[in-house]
Structure formats: structure tokens, C-alpha cells
């Protein structure tokens, strides 16, 4: 016959358990979450990918928190800023984001989301080293496309598909974008002689200019599109969806925004991208040559752009975490 468990013995057993086993762990209040898409090697000490400067300046020494279903662990600091590498492309990045959002160890109820990484830009509207806060996110892939020789010359090669109206275009919170632009307005941007020399291959005044901080539409597509024709198509899509001019081509933001929207809405979502390449070749270069450049023909400024992304984003993070009482309830009214 098994021994009878009395209330006294049950209490004695409970008292012997570790404190963590007796009470639920208090979730981490996330004030801001930095999402990067890839890292080249280690998180510090080697050639930097998209997350390394974030890690070194915000999370160095933080205990990694492994999340089931996420590509890499989450790192958090004492200011309530957390970050992770989500993976490249729509599927990898959105899967990681959903796994992290659903982990009960994190409280995202008041969090701001900063989706960051490198990108391409049309030479008519951007340049190497520039940094852009997205006003709109557009999914490049949700629609119908056909070959150029299958329609009359000059007609569009893309048509939206019905049923995707709520997820093919996101207008990000204008007040938040305006606050981000204001917070980062005085950030000094890095540049390099290699990047300056490369820009001169393009005749566009903007392309030849120095890096700057701007805003516009970010086009999300798993297709790494290149060439003037597809660049024009991206601008056509931006106009078709009544968004701002297309300025950035990237692979993740619209998909991640959809994931966040399902659980928290998009009022606190930002996309921050830095341009490391043009979306087309210069006048003396074919699209294929631009996609597969010969040695010495690549654009410079990759590391400088990574520096710029972190500097610009950190200016806003400092504003948010340094004035959390004002930001917790939403974007403070502009002065």
C-alpha cells in the first residue's frame, strides 16, 4: 500500500523545489526588437554581416536565449532591447519572427519592431551607403506576371491578383516614420573612397551623391530582381498601390510585417535598410555583368553601410528607451 501523502508532506516537498519551479518566470518586457536577416560568421571579431554591429554595440555579453523554431537565439539587454538574426527570405525570416513572438518568455505587447538589413536601390533615387526608413512595404510577388513578348510593346508585365489586398501593401505608421527620421536626422554617415569611385559609373545625380537618410517604399521579393526593366516595374507597382516611390529592394520586410500584424498590428513596425548595390548596371554594363561582376567591379561601401544602418537605428532606439514613459503608450506627439 503506498504511503499516504498528507498536507504537511506536500508542503515539505514543495519547499524543497527550486524557486524557479514554484513560480512562473516573469516575461521579458521587450521595448524594441531588432531583426536582422543574416550574419557572415561569428557575432563579433570577424567580417560583419547585418547583425554584428548591433550585437557589439547593444548585446555583447548578453546571454543567448534559444527559441524553438527560430533560426538563431535572441539577445536582450538591460534597456529592454532584444534582437536576433531571422534568416534570409520571406519564409525563413517570418517563421523565425512568429516563433519568437509566440515564446511566452517575451512580452511584446508594447514593443517597437525594427526590421534591418542591406538592400539594393535604383540609381535614380538612391546611392551606395544611403539608409532608408520605409514609408510603405510592398510584396513584389503577389500577382500575375508574363513575358514581355506576350503583350503589346510598352504594356505592363504585372497585374495584381485579387484576394491579397490586405497583405500586399503596408503603410507604416506615418507618425513613427516621422519620429524615426527626426531622431536620426543628425547622424553622421560613413563612406569610403571605393564607394565614391563606384558611384561615378552612374550618370544619375542621386547615384553619384553622398549617402543620405531618406524614406520611401521598400519592395519585398524573394526574387533578386535586377535590370532597368524590372526596376521600372517595381516603380509601376508602387504607383499602382498608391505608395511612395520605390527606393529599396529587399527580401523580408513585408512578410515579417504580416506576421507581426496578426498578433500586434503594424503601428510599431519600422523597416530600416541600407543600400549596398544598385538594382541595375551602369550604362556600359549589362544586367548579367552587373549580377556577376568581374573582380574589382563590385560596389564598395558594404561595411560602411552596415555601420550607417546601426548608427541610424540606434538613434531611434536611444530615443525610445531613454524616454520609455512617453513611448510606451505609443508614438509621442511631435513637438
Question: How would you describe the overall organization of this protein?
Answer:
It contains 12 helices and 13 strands. The protein is of the alpha/beta class. The chain has a single domain (28-323), classed as Rossmann fold (3-Layer(aba) Sandwich), CATH 3.40.50. The radius of gyration is 23 Å and the shape is globular. It has helices at residues 7-16, 19-22, 52-59, 90-101, 174-183, 193-199, 205-208, 228-240, 253-264, 287-291, 302-322, 324-327, and strands at residues 28-29, 32-36, 75-76, 81-85, 106-107, 112-121, 131-139, 143-145, 158-160, 169-171, 213-220, 246-250, 269-278. The strands form 3 sheets. Strands 2, 3, 4, 6, 7, 10, 11, 12 and 13 form a 9-stranded mixed beta sheet that branches. It has a two-stranded parallel ribbon with strand order 1-5. Strands 8-9 form a two-stranded antiparallel sheet.
* The CATH class: Alpha Beta
Give a short account of the largest sheet. Answer: 9 strands, mixed
Radius of gyration: 23 Å
Oligomer: single chain
Name the CATH homologous superfamily: Nucleoside phosphorylase domain
Mean pLDDT: 92
Structural class: alpha/beta
Q: What share of the residues lie within helices?
A: 25-40%
SSE succession: HHEEHEEHEEEEEEHHHEHEHEHHH
Give the overall shape, derived from the CA principal axes: globular
Output the CATH topology.
Rossmann fold
Distance between the termini: 76 Å
Stretches with pLDDT under 50, minimum 5 residues: 1-23
GO biological process, one term: transmembrane transport
Signal peptide: 1-21
GO molecular function: catalytic activity
Keywords: Signal
